[in-house]
Amino acid sequence: MGGGLLVAGTTSDAGKSVVTAGICRWLVRQGVSVAPFKAQNMSLNSFVTREGAEIGRAQAMQAAAARVEPTALMNPVLLKPGSDRSSQVVLLGKPVGELSARGYHSGRQEQLLGTVTDCLAELRRTHDAVICEGAGSPAEINLRRTDIVNMGIARAARIPVVVVGDIDRGGVFASFFGTTALLSEEDQALVAGYLVNKFRGDVTLLEPGLEMLRGLTGRATYGVLPYAHGLGIDEEDGLRVSLRGAVRESVVAPPAGEDILRVAVCAVPLMSNFTDVDALAAEPGVVVRFVDRPEELADADLVVLPGTRGTVRALAWLRERGLADAVVRRAAEGRPVLGICGGFQMLGERIEDEVESRAGTVDGLGLLPVRVRFAVEKTLARPTGAALGEPVEGYEIHHGVAEVVGGDEEFLDGCRAGAVWGTHWHGSLESDGFRRAFLREVARAAGRRFVPAPDTRFGALREEQLDRLGDLIEEHADTKALLRLIEEGVPEGLPFVPPGAP
Q: How far is 224 from 239, CA to CA, in rounded Å?
């Protein structure tokens, strides 16, 4: 068995995904064969592996950090919310049904522990090290009995735990102490120490607090990572639409042409794979923003309807807010619109859905000659092809089956009609030549003197960002101590911090 480490967090969004990716990149640069792992992920941002399995995009990003091909073993359980109370359960890359939160935590989750431990064991058998990511907080005492992603997997696999805390939120010392003190004695025995994330300022001012924390818990802090802007990694949660997932949060390079291009992405409910627009945001002179009001489309050169886990619900939302009428008007004026996956389905003539919403037949926006019927079986694919004279790669994740009955031309298995494009392919804009050709088409239709930069390489930008994550770990964490944890396990004699789990 290879070594292992679980990166837990005091809260959601404490930085577990970033730290896990950073440790993976640091290790692989040292010549260590490493793989990421997250037993259970809840996310609408997913990816399709080469064998046709659906996993969280964060794990695909971490696999890129580790320079390995992503597989279903790295994220055996993926939950895709369909409402506030239920999610689609994806097991080993394939959907197996819908479950309410109560139904999942009332027994189904416990049944999956053997599956996730087997996946972790296989990764440890084939790699020198596996860096696991937890979910939420390990101190969610109401869910501990059925936990398979935090202390549940750590106990089952006997791997050490480092807890990450976001100091930018404040209260990080209380969070570290409280997280530890709410764990059982058996769970605490695996918590080796802490890692401070998103620190701003003089680290020497923090050191007395870290010493006091060690005195209170008997555990070391393995590093203080500085606040880093524009890390540009794939986000797990599509509800946060601040474009923090963009590769470049603020592009310093001026546009290559005389004009900029403005892109408005409709922030539909249950938005999925909003990372599709990251490649647009990486282009100098392209300004991408998420919108939810019709007036915000007025100055947009391109409007994007993104993917969604609830196509019919998102279509109703567009109509309720007046966004649907605004999109139809701009299409009639010959102003560019792009629909991706669920967005493509909404642009069609009609949707027959007895699977996702069970709403029956619903009229689409009627901007593309497409009829959509939802199938029980989900399409999971990694298509390749060409459009606008350029090679394109993408991935598909959808229940809707589109029948194209007209249009001006085929477009990535979808179609184009006038200045309206639609496709089921996620990730197509990451193909550099195609992205530039598409932006030239948008600029022409929008009457903008915008010229795509000739040297923007999205894959290279991603690699730069992953190297930045590795640098954060290498320069600001106690890497020797982390390596000992991974290779040797938890130090002996860690004290119990009362009161423990209730």
A: 28
**Does the pLDDT at position 494 exceed 70?**
yes
341 labelled catalytic: yes
Q: Provide the mean pLDDT of the chain.
A: 92
How large a percentage of the chain has pLDDT more than 90?
82
| Cα separations in angstroms, 374 against 23, 98, 188, 411 | 41, 16, 47, 21
Q: What is the pLDDT of residue 8?
A: 98
Question: How confident is the model at residue 21, as a pLDDT?
Answer: 96
Find the catalytic residue in 24, 119, 266, 341. Answer: 341
Marked catalytic residue, from 127, 398, 424, 426? 426
User: Domains, the chain, ranges and CATH?
Assistant: 3-232+463-488 (3.40.50.300), 251-455 (3.40.50.880)
**Main-chain dihedrals φ then ψ at residue 182, nearest 5 degrees:** -95, 5
Phi, psi of 216 (to 5 degrees): -80, -30
Strands of the sheet with 350-353, listed across from one edge = 360-363, 350-353, 370-381, 396-404
User: Which has more pLDDT, 85 or 302?
Assistant: 302
> Does residue 402 contact residue 383 with C-beta atoms inside 8 Å?
no
Helices (H) and strands (E) in the chain, counts: 16, 27
- Tokens 């309410």 locate to 100
